[in-house]
Amino acid sequence: MNRKYRKTVVAGNFKMNLLPSDIKEYSETLRQLSGKARHCDMLVCAPFVMLPQAVKAFKDCRIAVGAQNLSDKESGAFTGEVSANQLRDLGVKYVIIGHSERRAYYGETDELVNAKVKAALGAQLNPIVCVGETLKQREQGVTEELVSMQVKLALYGVPSDKMRHVIIAYEPVWAIGTGKTATAEDANEICNKIRSVIRGLYGARISRAVTIQYGGSVNPKNAAELFAMPDIDGALVGGASLNPSDFAAIIEAANQ
Questions:
Q1: What CATH number is associated with residue 249?
Q2: In-domain check, residue 21
Q3: What range defines the domain where residue 178 resides?
Q4: 147 with 194: CB under 8 angstroms?
Q5: Cα atoms found within 13 Å of the Cα of residue 47, Cβ hemisphere only
Q6: Which is nearest to 191 in space by CA: 152, 231, 226, 164?
């Protein structure tokens, strides 16, 4: 982490877990355990059905609320979709875009990710843009090229003055939910590569200021080692965020 130039951000991704009725107890525990965290931004990304409860539960504290997806369309006859403006009106501050599960299971393309990034920024939401390679792609030695292309396509047409709202999350697909984690050095190497891509697109000043998270089986045991790396500025936490005690321990590691 390098707090001199950029924010440290720890985000929990509930995925399709928990119930709206669980949020009150969860929030009370997390608020209590993370109350002393002052050096990192915290947020939880909940399913659409529990966002109203989450916004209410985390009101008046330093924990923000994010969504896990959004439509690239502003409004219209798009049954089942949720727009950026609807999320913003609800009180949501962040949104995950291009998670590997969305890409793999629902066919989201780099072009769609780019459109969603622009939709989020247009509604003053902070997009968390996910990039990462599969195990096969890593074994083929194309990780840097693939991730670089994902970053470039996701940010295509995004003006420089909007980049202060953008977070990039490097999530090697083979490490998500598997218990496997890239070594801290390997993760930092790709995060550094992402920063160099942003430097090429927007210049050194902006690249220094962009928060780049790591995601992929982050837990209380490996968090501190990951956060000690100079180009890892926090985490997008999956399974461990479902337990507020574990999530608070990761936040504490980022707060050091």
A1: 3.20.20.70
A2: yes
A3: 9-254
A4: yes
A5: 13
A6: 231
CA atoms of 119 and 42, how far apart (whole Å): 23
101 noted as active-site residue: no
Q: Does the annotation mark 39 as catalytic?
A: no
Tokens of 202: 């927007």
Which of the following is catalytic: 99, 101, 108, 133?
99
Residues 76/50, Cβ–Cβ less than 8 Å: no
199-253 residue pLDDT tens: 999 999 999 999 999 998 899 999 999 999 999 999 999 999 999 999 999 999 9
The model's pTM: 0.96
**Separation in Å, CA 241 to CA 98, 207, 237:** 19, 28, 6
Rounded Cα distance between 106 and 253, Å, is: 34
Q: How many domains, in total, are found in the chain?
A: 1
The catalytic residue among 101, 108, 133, 171 is 171
In order of 6, 62, 229, the CA distances from 9 in angstroms are: 9, 12, 14
